[in-house]
């Protein structure tokens, strides 16, 4: 698993749909809990930065490169600082406290793209707003969850095939 991969997916998947209606998990207590689970404070400024990171990354993953601008602005004060130790150089993220967690999300996204190119994707169910990192050997995973979206999509495809074959008789 790539460093902060779970954080990346938690943030990307913090705006699911329920019955077609978008939900927001980076507000209120749910947002505070998500941020604190990953070492953040969960204050309003931090949650705002996480929403900017999430929305920008979702746009990028779906092919909208205009989002680069908002992500660049978010990261404008983030830097990497070198700490020299007896065993080598360690690079540490330095960013304002409200940006720190969002910057880690963007670092994780970058590492996933570097180490697993093309494997971070949106669920193939167009009614779903979740994301996945495909760790399968062939790299063919399509759904955020085979138990929910995969089953649902396969059932729809089967029903459509059955209707088509029934109309031919």
Salient structural properties:
Jann2411-like fold, 6 helices, alpha+beta, 6 strands, two-stranded antiparallel sheet, two-stranded antiparallel ribbon, 169 residues
Describe the strand arrangement of the main beta sheet, using strand numbers.
1-2
Please give the largest β-sheet.
Answer: 2 strands, antiparallel
Shape: elongated
What would you call the structural class?
A: alpha+beta
Low-confidence stretches: none
**Separation of the first and last Cα atoms:** 51 Å
Q: Helix tally?
A: 6
Q: What percent strand?
A: 5-15%
Arithmetic mean pLDDT = 91
CATH fold description: Jann2411-like fold
CATH superfamily: Jann2411-like domain
Question: In summary, what is this structure?
Answer:
This protein is of the alpha+beta class and about 170 residues long. Helices cover about 50% and strands about 15% of the residues.
Written overview of the protein:
With 169 residues, the chain is an alpha+beta fold. It has one domain: Orthogonal Bundle (Jann2411-like fold). Helix content is 50%, strand content 14%. The protein contains six helices and six strands, in the order αββαααββαββα. The protein has helices spanning 5-12, 28-37, 44-61, 68-74, 97-115, 146-168, and strands at residues 17-18, 21-22, 79-85, 88-94, 120-122, 131-133. A two-stranded antiparallel sheet has the order 1-2. Helix 3 (44-61) runs antiparallel to helix 4.
């Amino acid at each position: 698993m790539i460093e902060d991969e779970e954080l990346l997916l938690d943030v990307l998947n913090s705006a699911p749909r329920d019955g077609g209606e978008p939900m927001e998990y980076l507000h209120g207590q749910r947002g505070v809990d998500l941020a604190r689970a990953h070492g953040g404070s969960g204050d309003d400024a931090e949650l705002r930065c996480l929403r900017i990171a999430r929305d920008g990354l979702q746009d990028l993953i779906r092919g909208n490169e205009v989002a680069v601008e908002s992500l660049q602005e978010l990261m404008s004060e983030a830097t990497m600082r070198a700490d020299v130790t007896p065993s080598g150089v360690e690079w540490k993220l330095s960013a304002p406290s409200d940006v720190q967690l969002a910057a880690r999300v963007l670092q994780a996204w970058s590492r996933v793209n570097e180490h697993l190119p093309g494997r971070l994707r949106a669920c193939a169910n167009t009614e779903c707003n979740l994301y996945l990192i495909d760790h399968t050997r062939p790299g063919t995973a399509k759904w955020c969850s085979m138990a929910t979206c995969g089953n649902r999509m396969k059932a729809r495809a089967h029903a459509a095939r059955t209707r088509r074959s029934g109309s031919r008789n």
